[in-house]
Amino acid sequence: MFAGTKEPSFNLRTWNTTLGLIPHVVRQRMIIFLFPDDVVYDILWAGLVDLIVKIEKKGLQPRYEKLDLNTVGGVLVYETENPYNLKLKDQPPSTYKFLDELAKARDGLWREVRESAGGTPLPPIFPTGLPIQALIWPYTIASSEIELVAPYTYIRASDAVYLRQTAEDPIPTGEETRTSIGLFVDDFGAALRLLVPQHLDFMEKKARLKQVLHYAIHHLSGRLERVEAVIFWKQYLSTKS
């Protein structure tokens, strides 16, 4: 596949099926529940994390642009299933562990790539690797216990929702800074949906949203009057949760 990019007749559509094998395998392995979870992860998932990252790392090399693997989605963008059907609500712990480890591994890869590319140092509110919405897209961990089943993803989502105090500081507007930021901005709504999945029971969902609302009003609304902050955040959260 990689060697094929050197051919003058190379056509990406010829390789779509081949590239789609990885997300197809991921989806198929999610239906296997034959063994205890630790065994399932070791047999089915651990090697797949390494394989996905290995393919993506090679695809990010300059001479392989024709494969379209040099995007934040990596090889997972070749998943043909509708993302709406990939919101993983009731999965075994091994599947969530796979997605969490994949998120961590892909983020580490992109940190290395971005660091080697240089650029202007960014304010701490910006991710140094992948943004939260791109870690395992098009899959979504929709667990009510994400802090237990996917601790890395949970930390990233919490950092994006419960932003640091410096979130209100002005962002440098220089061209180099904007270029370094690029598409690497955490999506607040995507992070919120990880912390407050839609299927939560009414009282639990209400409690989690109340916590987010309280934090946003008191720590992320310095330029708004309190009444304005309450109105803004209530309306915003209602559209994102």
Helix proportion: 40-55%
Number of strands: 2
How many separate structural domains?
Answer: 2
Structural class: mainly alpha
Mean pLDDT figure: 83
Put simply, the count of helices is 10
Using the CA coordinates, give the radius of gyration.
Answer: 20 Å
β-sheet strand percentage: under 5%
Largest sheet: 2 strands, parallel
> What is the terminal separation in angstroms?
41 Å
Strand order across the biggest sheet? 1-2
What gross morphology would you assign?
globular
Which H/E pattern describes the elements?
HHHEHEHHHHHH
Could you list the spans in which at least 5 consecutive residues all have pLDDT below 50?
none
Give me a quick take on this structure.
By secondary structure, the chain is mostly helical.
Question: Which properties best describe this structure?
Answer:
single chain, 241 residues, mainly alpha, 2 domains, two-stranded parallel sheet, 10 helices, 2% strand
What does this structure look like?
By secondary structure, the protein is an all-alpha fold. The chain has 2 domains: 3-186, no CATH class; 200-241, no CATH class. Helices cover 51% and strands 2% of the residues. It has helices at residues 16-19, 21-29, 37-59, 93-116, 146-149, 151-161, 175-181, 188-195, 202-219, 226-240; strands spanning 87-88, 140-141. The chain has 10 helices and 2 strands. The radius of gyration is 20 Å and the shape is globular. Helix 3 (37-59) runs parallel beside helix 4.
